[in-house]
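#lab-general

N.A. 3:47 PM
ok so I finally got the sequence cleaned up, no stray characters, all 95 residues accounted for. can someone with queue access submit it? mine expired

B.Y. 3:52 PM
send it over

N.A. 3:53 PM
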Amino acid sequence: MDITAKALRHIQRMRSRKSLPKSAGVRLDLAAGSVCLKWESAGPRREDLVVREQDLPIFMDAQTYLRLADYELDLERDGDRPRFLLRPRPSIALK
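B.Y. 4:20 PM
back already:
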């Protein structure tokens, strides 16, 4: 899974507005086909995989990780409201 620069900047801005411990990260889940992000201040669960993007820990279970392997997390604005969405990862052209 990849995260676009736009989505990562938004998550980092959200994190900077909160008083979170160093162990805190973002939990990424899928619920009914939607992306769910929430802050986990206690750190990862024992069964979690931890992905780091520019010093931002992202926690997810193995099933979510496998389901998202071919996607990128992006951010789109609907007026003033930001909305996270998953898009198929752009293919990498081989030279």
